[in-house]
Specification:
Number of helices: 11
CATH superfamily of the largest domain: YVTN repeat-like/Quinoprotein amine dehydrogenase
Helix content: 25-40%
CATH architecture of the largest domain: 7 Propeller
Distance between the termini: 48 Å
Strand content: 25-35%
Strand order of the largest sheet: 4-5-6-7
Radius of gyration: 24 Å
Largest sheet: 4 strands, antiparallel
């Protein structure tokens, strides 16, 4: 079995099931946000922030074609991509508010505009797309809190599913086509059969992705609590092991494995076979049964209930990761070493692994502190994460859109300037990141630098339909700066914050 991962480093990587890399697909000019295998397993489609979808040959890793029609290309990043069940049509979901349908040879079929005239242009992105099993319907997950169903044959709207209270991050059909599952930043997973039929247990934060097992009897979903949850009519279990938000989850074709991809820069394969799950369950049970504070008598026979089941190395690795996530590096290293004694094939450096997960956890903590407007603490978490793991790759938008932009607007422009500079260094052509640094520069008295950044934003916005509405405001700021004044008055800052 081969696995694949999309990356912030602009590549797609193919892996053997044992973690051995097969090949790296290079060609995108920006981060890869979504990938999809054709039903015959011979082709991979990848969607990118560079506004394109590319098709690749699985056998040799070579680029087949780029879905970028001169007149009908996406005008902003492509968030999602999906093959129809027969493999002949590809759907792409864009930040420009459109779903585009393409032939497998790269020819454009039609564009579906998902926006109504009443929709706020700041909430127009399509975040995911999925075909029904019969190929007659394509569903879009939309930033305007809706799931929309469209006819593939003519692009007409069939139905809008309302019920989420924040952006819908993913959508998928059950194998029989009778049920639709959707996830959202509102922290819920909803199952629809024409209308909403049930809410699955949430995770207290955003849910990023959902997948049906091949027989349709089990659902896996994941989000920013760093876990994968399994459900089959009732909650089954949490799969814990990631140290940061889980962005994607998928079942293997035989339904025996779940793959999850995370912001901690790892892909984990979870074995759903009963023997392994028994070991993991007993491992968790032992933690409770051997605990002297659980209220059980020392000689209670139930304390020995799992004594004849050998501990699993994977559980010990999970325990180590959990300890690392709590910044207990020494404890994590001890658990990793114990796991390696049980399973000598676990070939990794315990110290480096513990620091890597601790650093990723600190980064997630920093991003959360930004949302809580605790900027001093957030800055400290970012810096500590980099100190623990100098190889930690922090995305440009985390530096720029998160720490730089929000910190500047909340009175910490001088403190977060280093983050603004890092963001621009990582993604110098991104106008939104240049805009964030421009705000920080204007607030710290660097009028010349601010003008340069805002002018760069204007040029970039000409090519990005989503941001054209911001051009008059930025031009106004440039005019005020050239006159020697600061356009970011308390009133203007309040508008930006809102």
């Amino acid at each position: 079995m081969s696995n694949y991962s999309a990356s912030h480093d602009n590549t797609v990587k193919l892996w053997q099931r044992d973690g051995t890399p097969i090949t790296t697909l290079t060609g995108h000019q920006a981060e890869v946000l979504s990938i999809s295998f054709s039903p015959d397993g011979k082709t991979i489609a990848s969607a990118s922030s560079d506004k394109t979808v590319k098709l690749w040959s699985v056998s040799d890793g070579k680029l087949i074609t780029t879905l970028k029609d001169k007149e009908h290309t996406h005008t902003d990043q492509v968030n999602g991509v999906s093959f129809s069940r027969d493999g002949q049509i590809i759907a792409s979901a864009g930040r420009d508010g459109t779903v585009k349908l393409w032939q497998r040879d790269g020819k454009w079929i039609r564009t579906i505009n998902t926006l109504s005239k009443s929709v706020n242009t700041l909430s127009k992105s399509v975040l995911d797309v999925s075909f029904s099993p019969d190929g007659e319907i394509v569903a879009s997950a939309n930033e305007d809190y809706t799931v929309k169903l469209w006819k593939v044959s003519d692009g007409s709207l069939i139905k809008t599913l309302n019920g989420h209270s924040n952006a819908v991050t993913s959508v998928t059909f059950s194998p029989d086509g009778e049920t639709i599952a959707s996830t959202s930043w509102d922290g819920t997973v909803k199952l629809w059969r024409g209308e909403e039929i049930t809410n699955l247990p949430g995770n207290g934060g955003s849910v990023e992705d959902v997948s049906f097992s091949p027989d349709g009897k089990m659902i896996a979903y994941a989000g920013n609590d760093n876990t994968v949850k399994l459900w089959n009519g009732k909650f089954i279990t949490n799969l814990t092991g990631h140290s940061n938000k889980v962005n994607a989850v998928s079942f293997s074709p035989d339904g025996k494995t779940v793959a999850s991809a995370s912001d901690d820069n790892t892909v984990i394969l979870w074995n759903l076979n009963l023997d392994d799950m028994l070991k993991r369950s007993c491992d968790w049970a032992r933690v409770y049964l051997k605990n002297s504070s659980n209220g059980m008598a020392e000689d209670d026979p139930d304390r020995q209930i799992c004594d004849d089941v050998q501990p699993s190395a994977s559980f010990l690795v999970d325990r180590g990761i959990n300890l690392a996530n709590k910044e207990n590096i020494a404890g994590a290293v001890a658990k990793f070493q114990e796991a390696q004694q049980l399973d000598p094939s676990l070939n990794f450096d315990p110290q480096a692994k513990a620091k890597r997960f601790a650093a990723s956890s600190l980064l997630a903590k920093g991003e959360s502190l930004v949302n809580e407007r605790k900027f001093k603490e957030a800055i400290a978490a970012y810096k500590q994460a980099q100190k623990l793991d100098p190889t930690l790759k922090i995305p440009a938008d985390s530096w720029g859109d998160s720490l730089c932009w929000r910190g500047s607007l909340n009175g910490y422009a001088k403190d977060v300037m280093f983050a603004c500079e890092k963001a621009v260094t990582l993604d110098p052509e991104n106008g939104w990141i240049r805009d964030s640094r421009g705000v920080a520069r204007a607030l710290t008295g660097n009028n010349k630098g601010a003008i340069e950044d805002f002018e760069a934003f204007l040029k970039w916005a000409d090519k990005n339909e989503t941001y054209k509405s911001n051009k008059p405001q930025r031009q106004g700021w440039i005019d005020i700066l050239k006159a020697g004044n600061n356009p970011l008055t308390p009133e203007e800052m309040k508008k930006l914050l809102n």
